[in-house]
Amino acid sequence: MPALNSARRSEANAAAVAVMAEADPVLTDVRPALEALPGMTPETILTSGAPMPWERYTGGQRRAVLGAAVFEGLAATVEEADQLLHAGKILVRACHDHGCVGSVTGVTSASMPVWVVTDANSGSRGHCLLYEGSDRQRLTYGVWNETVHQRLTWIRDVLAPHLSAALRAAGGVRVKPIIRRALGMGDDLHSRNTAATATLFQQLYGPVLDVAAPVATTRDVLAFLSGNDLFFLHVGMATGKCLADAAAGTPHSSIVTAMALSEQEFAVRTAGTGDQWFRSAIPELRAKLFDGITADDIAFMGGESLITETVGLGGLAAAAAFSLQDYSAGTAPAMVAATEAMYGITHGEHPTWKIPYLGFRGVPFGIDAALVAATGVTPNIHMGAALREGGHAGAGLLIAPVQPFQDALDALDALDRAEQAG
To answer: Using one digit for the tens of pLDDT, what is the confidence trace for 359-381?
Structure first.
């Protein structure tokens, strides 16, 4: 490519990363997906990954979509829901195309409550479903049964309205300082959110107590917040979506704005290619599984918690979270090496999110598809593992493929050539 294009891409990448780094994400509310998400309809069900036709969904991701259809009253049974999905009367769509991200199956339907995170600077918004709790059987992990139904109903009818009232009374909660503090206390903000959840709990404790509600309800809400160490994860995911979307659409930029999984594919977006997805086959997951579970028991069900890596957290910040070396099948030296390698494929470092062990160096920030393609080094991704029949199986490291990053770079080059020719 001519030098002019190289310089232009460098300037575009600097602009894209700057808008993400300077963002001031604020957790403002909890709202039903139908009210919060652009383009959402009562008959739409969102799920993880680049969009696919209904016929391609199988296994846990399919079970979760069918369960959501029954949960919404769109069908009386999963069999009826399947018929309506085939007929196009219920629509399955990609979370990312509706300003949302989802964990594992990512299934989000109209009445399900989502976090609302807004960048006070750009106005960009990100959303993510509320965390279901630590029970291994969740819709998130491809399970639909009466217990899951009851828990989702409580989250929708009790937890969400209480949190919404508390957040509005508090005037919102700034997220960036929570992430900064949590990194200093051993979180990676993907597989480990213990410190972030505790910090959020501190900020919400008073407002939750002040909400007019029966004492038993308030106790249940506080118990749920304090008893689920990963509760903050979905706040962090909504924040990642908010930051990445602020940079999306930056012309000529090769900065990655989304990485996502369906049960069939891994896919990537960049700032300069907008909504276009670049896809590859499912990558390798090196997982440490719970006792009694083997590799034959697990299967991909999708996932968009990779948005945390997209904004410098999770596997990119592995050196901040040494307690994960057992959970994620790594070692402390390997985690440091993984983070150090990430500086070679990112535009720079985050100005305020820092890693104590590395002398308070900023986390690697702004994954550059051009650097991934040139080096063959792909983002280090922390990832949960799911049971084939549904449920949480453990966690590990996702080994992302190079090809979609190369394809994104090729598409950017083609856009540059077309612009020059025109």
So the answer is: 999 999 999 999 999 999 999 99
Q: At which of 235, 267, 282 does a domain end?
A: 235
User: ∠ CA 88-89-91 to the nearest 5 degrees?
Assistant: 65
Q: Which pLDDT does position 137 carry in this prediction? A: 87
Q: What is the pLDDT of residue 301?
A: 84
User: pLDDT for 321-330, tens place per residue?
Assistant: 999 987 766 7
- Distance between alpha carbon 378 and the CA centroid of its chain, in Å? 18
Residue 26 belongs to some domain of the structure: yes
**Is the separation of the CB atoms in 366 and 253 below 8 Å?**
no
State whether the Cα torsion 82-90-116-180 is positive or negative: positive
Asked whether the whole model's pTM tops 0.90, one would answer: yes
**For residue 387, what pLDDT is reported?**
84
pLDDT for the residue 329: 61
Tell me the HSE value of 78 on the side-chain side, using a 13 A CA sphere. 11
Q: Are residues 279 and 196 in the same domain?
A: no
Q: Decide: 116 and 128 in contact? Cβ < 8 Å.
A: no
Domain termination site, one of 204, 235, 266: 235
**Domain that includes residue 137, residue range:** 3-235
CA–CA gap between residue 411 and residue 405 (Å, rounded): 10
- C-alpha span between 266 and 10 (Å, rounded): 26
- The CATH number of residue 142's host domain is 3.90.1710.10
Q: Which helix (H) or strand (E) holds 154?
A: helix 146-154
Residue bearing tokens 């960049």: 270
Angle at 267 between CA 338 and CA 272, to 5 degrees: 90
Query: Which residues are CB-neighbours of 255 under 8 A, at least 6 positions away?
Result: 13, 16, 17, 247, 270, 271, 272, 347, 366, 367, 368, 369
244 within a domain of the structure (yes/no): no
Instruction: Pick out the chain residues at pLDDT < 70.
Output: 1-4, 328-329
- Structure tokens given for 167: 């957040």
How far CA 138 is from CA of 63, 134, 143, 322, in Å, comes to 11, 8, 5, 27
Q: Apex CA 158: angle with CA 156 and CA 162, to 5°?
A: 105
Give the total number of structural domains in the chain: 2
- Please list, residue by residue across 367-391, b when 16 or more beta carbons sit within 10 angstroms of its beta carbon and e when fewer do: bbbbbbbeeebbbbbbbbbbbeebb
Q: Which residues contact 214 (CB under 8 A, 6 or more apart)?
A: none
